[in-house]
Automatic annotation (TrEMBL):
The lineage of its organism: Bacteria, Pseudomonadati, Bacteroidota, Cytophagia, Cytophagales. This is Diaminopimelate decarboxylase. Homodimer. Belongs to the Orn/Lys/Arg decarboxylase class-II family. LysA subfamily. Substrate binds at R267, R303, Y307, E333, Y361. InterPro entries: Ala_racemase/Decarboxylase_C, DAP_deCOOHase_LysA, De-COase2_C, De-COase2_N, De-COase2_pyr-phos_BS, Orn/DAP/Arg_de-COase, PLP-binding_barrel. The keyword Iron does not apply. It comes from Pontibacter virosus. Residues 16-359 form the Orn/DAP/Arg decarboxylase 2 C-terminal domain. Its EC number is 4.1.1.20. One of its GO terms (biological process) is lysine biosynthetic process via diaminopimelate. The gene is lysA. The modification N6-(pyridoxal phosphate)lysine is found at K47.
Length: 381
């Protein structure tokens, strides 16, 4: 059950996101300690959550920023991330976004196609600058996760495929305003089977061998993010097993002398610290189960509607006998459903419902569909 005081939560108008800052700090401490054992550098993937107080915590433990839009680069810099700890990735960077990032002298652009390299070179040349780049390579490793969040297969739009690399290197020789400093990989998100990362290490080692055979030294290898969290039991093991995760890379990745290893974690750092709190508006009879209609919906948390994702749902006000409810939102879409036949204590109008593990890809994916207001945010701890 959610480890925050009911009285405290009752003081706020619903729906709202609440963040447990103590849990966030413990999570970040563990992640940074485990990464530090091997001198690994973590860049927090801002896409998971861009709230300032959360970014401040990321900064406090020395993480850099992994950004996927000009606004994320801007947000990272405004929140105190030094520009040499900012990375800009993404398949579709606009000219304006690239120009902004060039002006900020960010650490590295993770580039995903030959065409992007040509454009970046042109824009850097116009500014009389040299852009540091990493090539995002599609390693063709199956992450065994939801098909919408797997990214490292040849059929996905992300990265440069292995067979294109000789042409890409030939192209790079003609682009004097780019400096190749690293390789970038990311195979997907919510990965709970660590063997996928082991397979990634094997592929990265092969790519490194190939680049060495081309007499190219790389300053860093970025192995992306993707470590999953336990959505089913958020209280049993709220902090992901960073020890197993980082030690796996230490064991299987063949790091070259003077080479840095970078990670881009998002979800594993912030998901468990966030909960969406909503109020029951109505109870309505259904054919097999009753509906509990909430004042939060897919506009506040779209993951269940978009990926059929599971989020644990708790009634934190009631202790009555258990019943089953379809827990739904107020939006005019049938997919606006947080869970079907969810077992809850007898639920009534006004009860507070906690939708757990919503700190990553929750608020950031909110929409104003149906002209909904943005949910409020509360930080505790
Ligand atoms: N690096 C790259 C290149 C990425 O594309 C992503 C996530 C990350 C790092 C961070 O991955 P994480 O450590 O958070 O798994 N909205 C979806 C997740 C989309 C992930 C997109 N890329 C969801 O709610 O499950």
């Amino acid at each position: 059950m959610l480890n925050l005081s009911l009285q405290e939560l009752q003081q706020h108008a619903t729906p709202f996101y609440v963040y447990d800052i103590n849990l966030l700090r413990q999570t970040l401490q563990q992640a940074s300690q485990e990464a530090a054992k091997y001198n690994f550098q973590v860049h927090y993937a801002l896409k998971a959550n861009t709230n300032s107080p959360i970014l401040q915590e990321m900064r406090a433990v020395g993480f850099g920023a992994d950004c996927v839009s000009g606004n994320e680069v801007k947000c990272a810099i405004e929140n105190g991330f030094p520009s040499h700890y900012v990375v800009f990735a993404g398949v579709g960077k606009s000219d304006a976004e690239i120009n902004f990032a060039l002006d900020q002298d960010i650490f590295c652009f993770n580039c995903e196609s030959s065409h992007e390299l040509i454009v970046l070179n042109e824009l850097a040349e116009a500014k009389g600058k040299t852009a540091r780049i990493a090539l995002r390579i599609n390693p063709n490793v199956n992450a065994n996760t939801h098909k919408y969040i797997t990214t490292g297969l040849e059929e996905n739009k992300f990265g440069i495929n292995a067979w294109e690399l000789p042409d890409v290197l030939a192209l790079l020789k003609t682009l004097p305003n780019l400096s190749l400093i690293g390789l970038h990989f990311h195979i997907g998100s919510q990965i709970t089977d660590l063997s996928a990362f082991r397979n990634l290490c094997t592929r990265v080692n092969e790519f490194q061998d190939w680049f060495e055979s081309q007499q190219i030294q790389l300053e860093h290898i970025n192995v992306g993010g993707g470590l999953g969290v336990d959505y089913y039991s958020p209280d049993e093991q709220p902090i992901p097993d960073f020890e197993a995760y980082f030690s796996l890379f230490n064991q299987f990745l063949e790091v070259r002398p003077n080479q840095q290893v970078h990670f881009e974690l998002g979800r594993a750092l912030v998901a468990q610290s966030g909960t969406l709190i909503s109020k029951v508006l109505y109870i309505k009879k259904g054919v097999s189960t009753n509906f509990a209609i909430l004042d939060a919906g897919m506009t506040e948390l779209i993951r269940p509607a978009l990926y059929q994702s599971y989020h644990k749902i708790e009634n934190i006000s009631s202790e009555g006998a258990e019943e089953r409810y379809d827990v739904v939102g107020p939006i005019c879409e049938s997919s606006d459903c947080f869970g079907k036949a969810v077992v809850l204590p007898e639920t009534n109008r006004g009860d507070l419902i906690a939708i757990r593990t919503a700190g990553a890809y929750g608020e950031v994916m909110a929409s104003s569909y149906n002209l909904r207001e943005k949910a409020a945010v509360v930080y505790l701890g």
